[in-house]
Structure formats: C-alpha cells, structure tokens
Amino acid sequence: MENATLTIQLEFNGSKGEELAKMPQNSLEVQVITILLALVICGVGIAGNIMVVLVVLRTKHMMTPTNCYLVSLAFADLIVLLAAGLPNISEVVASWVYGYAGCLCITYLQYLGINVSSCSITAFTVERYIAICHSIKAQFICTVSRAKKIIACVWIFTSLYCIMWFFLVDTNETVYADGVVVRCGYRVSRNLYMPIYFLDFTLFYVIPLVVATVLYGLIARILFMSPLPTNPNDRVGTDSIHQGRSNSTVKVSCKSNKGAMTSRKQVTKMLAVVVVLFALLWMPYRTLVVVNSLMDPPYLNTWFLLFCRMCIYMNSAINPIIYNLMSQKFRAAFKKLCKCKQQHAEKVTKYNVPVYYSVMKDSSHESPEHDDTEQEDMNSYPVTSKKVNFTEKCGETGAMFSIA
C-alpha cells in the first residue's frame, strides 16, 4: 500500500548509496510494537469486514443501496489489511520474502484497496445526498441494481488505473558485510514518482473530501435544520402504502413516519462519521508524502512512520465497529451472526415476513425498484424489536395488520 511499501522504498532509496558494514535492523522495541499492533488491528478489521459482507449478503432486508456500497468498502478494506498489514509483520523482522511476483501483486492490491475504498465512500455520499435532498428522484435513481452497476464500474476503473504499478516497482538487493537485504522498491528514481503520488492525492483524497464536505453540508441543511420533505408517493415510513386493489389504502401511523425520519438521521450520521475518520486517519500519511516530496532528504522518523501505517490499518478496521455502535440494524445482525441463531430467525420469518412482503410486492405497481430505496431508512431498527400497525380503512371489518 502507500504505507508500508512507500516507507520501505523511501528507506531503501535513502540508504542506497551508503556503504554499511552491517545489515540495518529495526530495534526490538519497534519490532514488538509493530507486530502486536498490526496483529490486533488487522485481526479485528478482517473479522469485522467479513461480518459486514456476510450480514448484508445473507439478510434480504439488509440489501439496500447504501449497504451495497458498504460491502464494496468492506471488500476494499479487507484487501488493504491483507496486502499491507500482514506483509508488514514479516518485513519488520526480515527483508522482503515474497519475491518479484509478490512485490508486483502486493503493491497492486494495496493501491487497489485504497482507491476502491475512497471511491466507495464518495459513492455512498452521493447516494445519501440524492436519497435525502431529492427524495422523488431517489425512487428511480437510488436502487440496488444501479448501486451494483456503479460498484462494478468503480472496481473496473480502479483495477485498470492501478495496473501502472506492475511497471513501476521492482525488487532491489543491497549487499552488506553480513548478508544481502531484499526490498520491494522503486524501479527508477523516487522523484519520477511524485506526479503519480500527487495524482492519487488529488483523485482519491482531496476530491472525495471536498465532495463529502459540500454534500453533507446540503444534507444537514435539509435533514437537521428544516423539516424532512415528505413525498406523497412514498409508501414505507411515510403517509400511505397502497395494497392490493387500487381502491385499498393502508395508512402508516405518524409514529412510524417520525421513526423513518429518525432512522434517516442515524444512517446519515453513521456515514458522516465514516467519512470523517477516513479524512483524519489518512491525513498523517498523505501529509508525509507531500512534505517528503519537497524535502531532501525526506523525513523518515521510525516512530512517525509506524504511526502513519497504524492509522491506515485502523481506517480499514474501524468501520465495522462504527456500524455496530451507530446502527441498531447492523448491531442486531452482528449478534445474530455471532450467536448463530438460525432456527430462531426462521421462526420469526414464518410469522412476520409474509405480511411485510405482501405489502411491498402489492405496492410495486408504482415503481418496481422503489422498495430497495426505501428499506435503507429502516436500517436503524432491529426487525423483531418494534411493531407497526396498519389499518385498512376501506374494509368493513377494520382489519389490523402487524409487522414485528
């Protein structure tokens, strides 16, 4: 990644011309702290991101446009942790042990994970803006199928963009009195790589943060500083749900409408926290790259380099923790996955899901993919914790339906 790889490359180039009697080695203190932190952060991050992918892909009501982008982000974070965090553990105590092919592939995967995570954050920021500030258009724009197409385009674009790293890195050997040190480093002079680093800095850090700042400012103005605009055509969490015949209308209570508004705020806050942490945790490394491009020799303090690397690993590991703390829906899904309560889930499904999906399917005459957009606003509520009553006023019996 731009973290451990760049650090090694800078250190290698800084010492390339020097004649050293003995092979340079990190102190025991640096080795122990690096290994412990990397193991803990990467272990938590890998487990957490795998859980995010599983709960979204295995739970039908979790498959929303926003959660699709979170799955893409989780996959990208997994690549960062596996391709950058784990190799750093072996490098801190030895030289490069993955060979020439490993140097090319690991460097490629590091940049791929970084860039995809940045693009995924930008994508769900734009999706949140459309869903809240243009709620009518969101019924047709913010759908699961469209989200999947956007994610596919993001991965294809970044995969092609990062191919250049196959031609920019190589393994380098330095001979010392007591052995040979192999490093995965630059193929040519470091100065020639500065335009590429500044391009990455602009495309995958500055632009996403500028876009996020502007859009979340507009979202805050609509969502927190003024009443949430209601759409008469909305069917879940708004004024009405059309069920069965055109003459039959099921109205949701005002309490449910207020709950949908609260849920939107919670989801938006959670995603805003993800963006803020992305900005803060990537800032040390991005700043270091800019400063070192202007300094000769570059700043290579061992502890600051370790801090930069751990911040990047932390950024890839912390998102599942944020989802668990700020989303009741994710928290319930994580608990269910950990406890493996599959039988209990099946019993709940038998009694409750048919009513829910009968309403959703019958109402699909207006917009086939509208359900995918609206379900995201229910993400902050566990499925079994709250009941919403629907009253069929057109019927003579005044039948009452309940969704647990």
UniProtKB/TrEMBL annotation:
Residue stretches spanning the membrane: 32-57, 69-89, 95-114, 150-168, 196-219, 267-283, 303-326
Presence of the UniProt keyword Transmembrane in the record: yes
Keywords for the protein's UniProt record, in alphabetical order: G-protein coupled receptor, Membrane, Receptor, Transducer, Transmembrane, Transmembrane helix
One Pfam family linked to the record: 7tm_1
Gene Ontology MF: a single term: thyrotropin-releasing hormone receptor activity
Highest taxon of source: Eukaryota
InterPro entries per record: GPCR_Rhodpsn, GPCR_Rhodpsn_7TM, TRH_rcpt_1
Annotated PROSITE patterns: G_PROTEIN_RECEP_F1_1, G_PROTEIN_RECEP_F1_2
Gene Ontology annotations for the cellular component aspect, listed alphabetically: membrane
Cellular localization per UniProt: Membrane
One biological process term in Gene Ontology: phospholipase C-activating G protein-coupled receptor signaling pathway
Domain G-protein coupled receptors family 1 profile, first and last residues per copy: 48-323
Task of the protein: Receptor for thyrotropin-releasing hormone (TRH). Upon ligand binding, this G-protein-coupled receptor triggers activation of the phosphatidylinositol (IP3)-calcium-protein kinase C (PKC) pathway.
Family under the similarity heading: Belongs to the G-protein coupled receptor 1 family.
PANTHER family in the record: THYROTROPIN-RELEASING HORMONE RECEPTOR
Name of the featured protein: Thyrotropin-releasing hormone receptor
Lineage: Eukaryota, Metazoa, Chordata, Craniata, Vertebrata
